[in-house]
Amino acid sequence: MTKPPRTYxxxxxxxxxxxxxxxxxxxxGGDTYTRVNLQKKYPREPVSGLTGAAITxxxxxLRVGIAGVISPAMTLESYQQLLQYMGKTLGRPVxxxxxxxxxxxxxxxxxxxxxxxxxxSLAYVEGKSDFDMELLAAPQVRGAITYNSYLxxxxxxxxxxxxxxxxxxxxxxxxxxxxxxxxxxxxxxxxREKPETFFRNYIFTYNHDxxxxxxxxxxVDGAAVDSLIYDYLASVNSPLIRKTKVIASWGxxxxxxxxxxxxxDISLKTELKEFFLSLHxxxxxxxxxxxxxxxxxxxxxxxxxxxxxxxxxxxAGAQ
Length: 319
Fold this sequence. Notes:
Blueprint: H1 6-23, E1 48-50, E2 62-66, H2 72-90, E3 94-98, H3 102-110, E4 116-118, H4 121-131, E5 134-140, E6 146-154, E7 169-172, H5 178-190, H6 195-198, E8 201-204, H7 208-216, E9 222-226, H8 227-235, H9 239-242, E10 244-254, E11 258-260, H10 266-277, H11 283-291, E12 296-298, H12 306-318
Parallel strand pairs: 2-3, 2-4, 7-8, 7-9
Antiparallel strand pairs: 1-3, 4-11, 5-11, 5-12, 6-9, 6-10
């Protein structure tokens, strides 16, 4: 991955510094989230359309939602080949739909404004509780259907554990992120601490790569990020990885899945499931999976997310 353009970096730095300066001396607490807007405001319509091979069939576009796990540019770079191959295989246009927050993507799924979506593990747990969001498949990475939350700091930081970040500025990703919010909050509770009193300030970046960027540029003292995103950036020799280091790894947790609305047409649901589960059996599909560091897609049970539910319950009981 090439170094982010200078304009992007300048905007990132200015945005984060502005937020941090506003927060100085005023703790962040409760359910009032401070959001760092590091991208252009999303329109309400799909951000980008990716057309499959069969554009003359007259079939409506298959809307594929991808939550704000990573920035829009990185999402397009990472998933474009997969979505184009999906369109070619299913014989219909495919449209990428992005939203900046996990809750917004959950609303799109709930209201049937996308047919299939890639979501965070905790967003799935919330969606399952809210409207019986349904699992379709999940990626298997290095033989596992789990991932971790990485606690990262600048490469030259003296911090060696979570406790060393007391009184520092911290970056969460999204309120509905497991690796970027629930896991670190739970770890704080294990040492009888809360974000509001443990950190001097904390912010929400709403993208894991933005959190990594913020740590790399020393705009925050630490962050909790998705291990899958961090490992992906490491695999493409991102300079962000050289400027950061992992000082703790929490988990494992059930891996972020691919989901659908429970009322999705059964034939389309079956077609989509077969596409994902057979992706590794074709040379082109296998190459796409390799580029995403995914072995294959597999069926998973709801039970792999029970640890997240338990963390939520324990945090609620600690209030």
